[in-house]
Specification:
The structure holds two protein chains of two kinds.
Chain A lengths: L4 E7 L11 E6 L4 E6 L3 H9 L11 E4 L2 E4 L2 H14 L3 E5 L5 H14 L2 E4 L6 H10 L6 H7 L2 E5 L3 H4 L3 H6 L15 E6 L4 H4 L3 E4 L5 H12 L8 E2 L2 E2 H13 L2 E6 L1 H4 L4 H15 L4 E6 L6 H12 L5 E2 L6 E2 L6 H6 L5 E5 L3 H4 L2 H9 L2 E5 L4 H4 L3 E4 L9 E4 L5 E4 L12 H16 L2
Parallel strand pairs in A: 6-7, 6-17, 8-9, 8-13, 9-10, 13-14, 17-18, 18-19
Antiparallel strand pairs in A: 1-2, 2-3, 4-5, 4-19, 7-15, 11-12, 15-16, 20-21
Chain B lengths: L1 E7 L7 E2 L5 H4 L4 H5 L2 E4 L2 E4 H4 E5 L7 E6 L5 E2 L9 E4 L15 E4 L15 E4 L22 E8 L18 E7 L8 E7 L13 E6 L11 E10 L5 E10 L11 E5 L1
Parallel strand pairs in B: 1-6, 2-7, 6-8, 8-9, 9-10, 10-11, 11-12, 12-13, 13-14, 14-17
Antiparallel strand pairs in B: 1-5, 2-3, 3-4, 15-16, 16-17
Classes of the chains: A alpha/beta, B mainly beta.
């Protein structure tokens, strides 16, 4: 009997920062298409199916000619892209979070050659966490520790039921661990959120907080933990009795962890919310073991930070204009640069700022020459002057990705890339070669 | 004082980094030598002569006054690490004006962008307009920011001004900020800095203050819950010897750092 479907086991899912590594993918050998995904969540499964041929997938390089995207050869597309980058006075290289580490490393190389600005999507998601960690340090752990030991879990401004669907069942809530043999019954879940989210609905304690007043609440918790008797009766919509009760719960736990998301990093006060959360966790260690872990969004945004850091010393918002890396979010972060209209060309790799950045900055981004390395049609690629079609890392090419707790995992190739698509790494390598040639190096 | 005059020649499309414009670099040099000093424009290394007309001469650093005319709103890092002399700017100025300076005086007759007087070690920075965010603050990752000197801002200062300010009693160093009004997180992580605000302040003033004094003559939009009322005072004595008269409510904090703390926040009664 001829085998029609090949099953790949223990595949690592390239969608969110949870990076589940137990997926089973069935690929039809005749058509080379994904036909079944097991163990994955809704979002991860959809990503695998998105690799199959569709109207949304790019299969050939495109160049904008007379306002229309026209199919061209790779040589022509790479030449045009290199031309844009070499002619630019202040190019921006942005994205990198939804691709593997080798491609990210090539991105750093290209930025250095071009004296460009290099940024990744942390700049609009967990960048504030990194700023806070630089200011006050952080007590971190791997998710395995949480699974086996944690008995008090706080989700602050994060909603894993929707954003990281398998987080609860794999690491933080329902899973049975070495010291948590009864799974969910052995854990106490606290959710702090302005909205009664689906995560809040399965929690043991839900604290409804006024929007953007997280900083005040954490300060109050810390002051109560210090033994101070506060003047106020209520903080951020939470009564002082509730705060005292929460402090007792935290102090009496055996092993606690705070998972925090965009609710903390992208509400008003940004990195200061994380700063005070980190200090709360550090101070709780006077009583018990406590840790915190950022809920990273893109599957390899943690990897982008790692790769950029080991290459340049900085995790994001890096400027090479003087020939050496400099770092200053606010000055060299993509959104701020675009708002001030300081960028005159951009290369976007595996990211879609067109649908995520503030409108005013996107307007400035689209004003100038734009290159997109992208597998699918997105608002960004629709406005690109050059589209370089990429194979999807983790589905059509191999690579390494870092989970939200900074554990590196190997991504696998389950099918061949469609049409003329190349991996992000290969595209960037060809671009580097061409740019070097044009610069006469 | 011997004056050296600069006038910007071009309209800037990208920021120009002008950390070589300091009395230290100009003193004892001829006009031709000054014109050869390096500046950075976009990704290119250029010379001062490419962008500025230069006239005047000075021998000693302490006796040098640099006067700059023309639109400098996109010129960064003027007066970086200067140790003496004076700079006068008659327009708005870009980021990092007077960062790391340890002596001398800078007067800006216009608005200043972010990080004005960041990591100030001494000297005086006067801004006769509004200033951006992070006035007199520490740079990313530093635990000790402004250690000495005075910053005076006539208008508003942005968020996180005087971040990680650090005083020293034995060395008699009292970093001080005077401003018209302030945005949120004024004096966060303060370790002895003094801040006097003529007007109103947004949320979270003095967050995580270990010690130091913040005097607010207007209102605070939202006081931190971790501050506690101590009582009322008729005057405030600042560590640099200055006395501020007026009825103030005295608060102690931030109690997140210690149960009993020397940090003080005074808000007009």
């Amino acid at each position: 009997m001829v085998e029609k479907v090949k099953t790949f086991e223990d595949v690592c899912c390239p969608f969110c920062g949870t990076l589940c590594d137990d997926l089973e993918i069935d690929v039809d050998l005749k058509t080379d298409q994904v036909v079944e995904v097991r163990n994955g969540c809704q979002i991860g499964t959809k990503k695998y199916f998105s690799s199959n041929p569709s109207d949304h997938r790019f299969t050939k390089p495109l160049i904008r000619k007379n306002g229309e995207h026209v199919e061209v050869s790779w040589d022509e597309a790479i030449d045009k892209a290199a031309d844009i980058l070499v002619k630019a006075q202040r190019p921006l290289l942005y994205g990198f979070s939804s691709t593997e580490c080798d491609a990210q490393s090539r991105g750093v190389e290209l930025a250095e050659i071009l004296n460009a600005i290099l940024d990744n999507t942390a700049s609009v998601c967990h960048g504030p966490s990194l700023l806070a960690i630089q200011d006050v340090g952080a007590s971190l752990a791997t998710l395995g520790e949480i699974k086996n030991r944690a008995d008090t879990i706080i989700f602050w401004g994060s909603n894993p039921v929707h954003a990281h669907p398998r987080h609860l069942s794999r690491y933080s809530d329902f899973i049975r661990g070495y010291f948590r043999t009864d799974g969910r019954n052995d854990r106490y879940i606290v959710v702090v959120d302005p909205r009664n989210t689906h995560t809040a609905q399965i929690a043991d304690k839900y604290i409804r907080i006024n929007p953007s007043e997280d900083y005040e609440l954490i300060q109050a918790i810390r002051a109560v933990l210090r033994g101070a008797d506060l003047d106020v009766k209520e903080v951020s919509g939470v009564s002082i009795e509730d705060i005292k009760e929460l402090v007792e719960i935290l102090k009496s736990s055996n092993f606690g962890v705070v998972f925090f998301g965009m609710g903390l990093t992208q509400s008003l006060a940004h990195h200061r919310n994380v700063d005070t959360a980190i200090r709360l966790v550090a101070e709780l260690n006077d009583y018990t073991k406590f840790l915190l872990i950022p809920m990273r969004g893109h599957y390899n945004v943690a990897g982008a930070n790692q790769v950029f850091t080991w290459n340049t010393g900085y995790a994001y918002s890096i400027d090479f204009s003087r020939g050496y890396p400099r770092y200053n979010p606010g000055e060299f972060s993509s959104v701020d640069l675009l708002m001030r209209d300081e960028v005159d060309a951009a290369l976007i790799v595996a990211s879609d700022p067109g649908s995520n950045f503030p409108a005013a900055s996107v307007k400035n981004l689209f004003k100038h020459p734009l290159i997109a390395i992208e597998p699918h049609k997105t608002p960004t690629s629709a406005f690109a002057d050059v589209v370089l079609p990429a194979a999807i890392a983790g589905i059509e090419c191999e690579g390494t990705a870092y989970r939200m707790d900074k554990v590196p995992l190997r991504l696998r190739k389950v099918k061949e890339p469609p049409g003329e698509t190349l991996s992000d790494k290969e595209i960037l390598e060809r671009l580097i070669e061409k740019v070097k040639e044009k610069l006469g190096e | 004082m011997d004056e050296i005059k600069l006038k910007i020649k071009k309209k800037l499309e990208f920021p120009l980094e002008a950390d070589s414009i300091t009395p230290d670099n100009f003193a004892g040099k001829t006009v031709a030598e000054i014109k050869k000093l390096p500046l950075y424009y976009a990704t290119k290394k250029v010379t001062l002569g490419n962008f500025f007309d230069v006239s005047g001469k000075s021998i000693e650093v302490a006796n040098t006054k640099i006067i700059i005319e023309g639109d400098l709103s996109n010129v960064k890092r003027i007066g970086e690490k200067m140790t003496g002399g004076e700079i006068e700017i008659n327009s708005a100025v870009g980021m990092h004006i007077g960062n790391n300076m340890s002596g001398g005086k800078i007067v800006v007759n216009g608005n200043a962008d972010d990080w004005a007087g960041a990591m100030l070690q001494g000297g005086e920075l006067e801004i006769n307009g509004d200033a951006g965010h992070y006035v007199g603050s520490a740079y990313r990752g530093y635990w000790q920011g402004m250690k000495n000197g005075i910053i005076k801002v006539k208008g508003k200062v942005g968020v996180e001004s005087m971040l990680w300010a650090k005083s020293s009693k034995p060395a008699n160093k009292w970093p001080t900020l005077y401003c018209g009004s302030a945005d949120s997180f004024l004096g966060i992580h303060n370790h002895g800095g003094t801040i006097v605000v003529e007007g109103n302040v947004d949320r979270c003033a003095g967050a995580d203050q270990a010690w130091g004094n913040i005097v607010i003559k207007g209102k605070v939009s939202r006081l931190l819950p971790s501050y506690k009322k101590v009582g009322e005072v008729k005057e405030v004595q600042l560590p640099n010897g200055e006395v501020i008269k007026g009825k103030f409510i005295e608060y102690s904090g931030d109690h997140t750092i210690k149960k009993e703390t020397n940090g003080r926040l005074y808000i007009a009664a």
